[in-house]
Amino acid sequence: MVPRYSRPDMAAIWEPESKFRIWFEIEAHATDALAELGVVPREAAKAIWDKGAFEVDRIDAIEAEVKHDVIAFLTNVAEHVGPEARFMHQGMTSSDVLDTCLAVQLARATDILLEDMDKLLDAIKRRALEHKFTPTIGRSHGIHAEPLTFGMKLAQAYAEFDRNRARLKLAREEIATCAISGAVGTFANINPKVEAHVAEKMGLSVEPVSTQVIPRDRHAMYFATLAVIASSVERLATEVRHLQRTEVLEAEEYFSPGQKGSSAMPHKRNPVLTENLTGLARMVRGYAVPAMENVALWHERDISHSSVERYIGPDATITLDFALARLTGVIDKLVIYPERMQANLDKMGGLVHSQRVLLALTQAGISREDAYRIVQRNAMQVWESDGEKRLLDLLKADPDVTAKLSDEQIEERFNLDYHFKQIDTIFARVFGD
User: Fold this and answer.
1) pLDDT class for 2, splitting at 50, 70, 90?
2) 304 flagged as catalytic
C-alpha cells in the first residue's frame, strides 16, 4: 500500500494489529464452541478471553525462528494465557484462521467501499439534476454527433455506478464465508457446529465445502468486481479529461486558490486528479488477473495464492477506496461551462441536425439513399468551411430540398429542444419518479 493513496479507515483494516485481533477472535470463538460441545474445559475458553493478548513485534520475532506465522501467533498468545492455551486451535488448521480472517477483512473493506459508492452516487445525482436540461454536444468517435444534455451524461454515469454497487453487494456476499473445517476440510477433528458458531460471531456465512482453503473462485469474482468498478471510475475520469481539453473546455476540475498546474508554465490548469484516477484504475484492474490465477490450486491446498493475496487484498481495496473518494470530490466540485457547451454545439454550422433533415426528406417521399446524398453534399460544404457556412442556409438554397420541404419545415428540423423531449423519461428510468 502507498500512503499517498491510502485513507485511514481502509488502511486500518489491513494493519497487523487488526489482522491479529481477528485471528484472536476466531480462535477464541472456536474455543467457546468447543467448550459448549464439551471438547475443552469451559475454564480454558474463559481464560483465553480474559488473558489472551499478543504483541506484533513478538509475533514477528517468533516467526523469524519458526518460519510459520500462525504458530508464531499461537505461541505469543500462549505466553499470556498460560497452560489453558493448549486448548486453542483444537482440530483446526492454519487456513481456517487465515481464510476466515481474509473474509472478515474483505467484508469490512467492502462496507467502506459501499459507503464510498453511496457518496459518489449522491454527488453524481445532484449534478445530473442541476444540469438536466443543459444542452451539450454528443460525440461519437470524438466527432460531433447529435445534441444531448450534460445531465444525461451524468445520469448515464449514475446508472453505471448503481449497477456497480449492486455487483459489489453481491461480491460481498460471495466473499464473506467462514471455513473452520480442519485439514483437507473433512471436519474429522472438529465439529461443524464450531464453524457455524464462528461464522455467526464474525458476521460470515458457512462455506459449504472447503478443501483446506476457501475456494478461490470466490476471490476471483470479488477482485474482478473491483476491477469493473475501477473501469467505470476511469470511464468517467476520461470523460472529464476530454471535456477539460483547451479546444473543448466544457467542464474542468476545480482549481483551488494557490494551486499551480506546471513548474514551467504558469498558465496551466491540468486535469491531474482525473489523470491520477486513470492510473489508479489500471492498478486495481491489474489485481484481477492474479486473483483468477489463484483459483487453480494443487489438490486440496497449496500456498501459491498466499503471497498474491497479501498484496492484492490491501492494495486493491485501499486503492479503490481512495479512487472513489477522489472521484466524488471531482464530481462534487466539477466546474461546468454551459456557454462553452452551447458555443461548441453551434461551432459546426448546424451539422448536428443533419439526421432530422434526412428523416424529413424520406417522409416527404425521397428514397433514403437520395435523401442521404442530398443532405451529405450540403453538410460537406459546411464541414470543409469549418462551420463558416451554415447547413440551414445551404438547405434552403438547394432545390432538391425545397422541392419537398418548405422553409418553415426545414427550420423546424433545427430546433434544439426537439432532442430533449425524452429527457424526463430517461431520468425517471435512472432516478425513479
Assistant:
1) confident
2) no
How many C-beta neighbours within 10 Å does residue 433 have? 6
- For 20, the 3-state DSSP assignment is helix
> What are residue 147's DSSP bridge partners?
137
Q: How far apart are CA 373 and CA 80, in angstroms?
A: 87
**Residue range 115-159, pLDDT digits in tens:** 999 999 999 999 999 999 999 999 999 999 999 999 999 999 999
What average pLDDT does the segment 74-85 reach?
97
| DSSP strands (E only) in 106-260 | 135-140, 143-149, 177-178, 205-206, 251-252
Q: List Cα–Cα distances, 77 to 18, 56, 62, 81, 257, in angstroms.
A: 15, 11, 12, 6, 53
Q: Tally Cβ neighbours within 10 Å of residue 138.
A: 15
- Of residues 300 and 15, more confidently modeled: 15
Nearest to 147 by CA among 134, 157, 156, 135: 135
What is the torsional sign of CA 356, 361, 364, 370? negative
Cα-based distances in Å from 116 to 112, 271, 317: 6, 22, 11
Q: Which of 141, 256, 263, 267 is catalytic?
A: 141
DSSP state of 389: S
Strands 251-252 and 143-149: unpaired
Please give the grid coordinates belonging to residue 159: 446508472
Mean pLDDT for the stretch of residues 50-65? 98
- Whether the CB-CB separation of 206 and 195 falls below 8 Å is answered with yes
Query: 54: Cβ–Cβ under 8 A, 6 or more apart, which residues?
Result: 20, 24, 73, 76, 77, 80
With a cut of 80, say whether residue 1 has pLDDT above it.
no
Residues 6+ apart with CB under 8 A from 260: 266
For the question of residue 267 being annotated catalytic, the response is no
How many helices (H) does the chain have, and how many strands (E)?
19, 6
Spatial neighbors of 336 by CB under 8 A, at least 6 apart, are: 127, 131, 134, 150, 250, 251
pLDDT at 197: 98
pLDDT at 34: 97
Which residue out of 68, 262, 367, 385 is catalytically annotated?
262
Alpha-carbon distance 146 to 100, whole Å? 53
Exposure letters 37-61 (e unless 16+ CB within 10 A, then b): eebbeeebbebbeeebebeeebbee
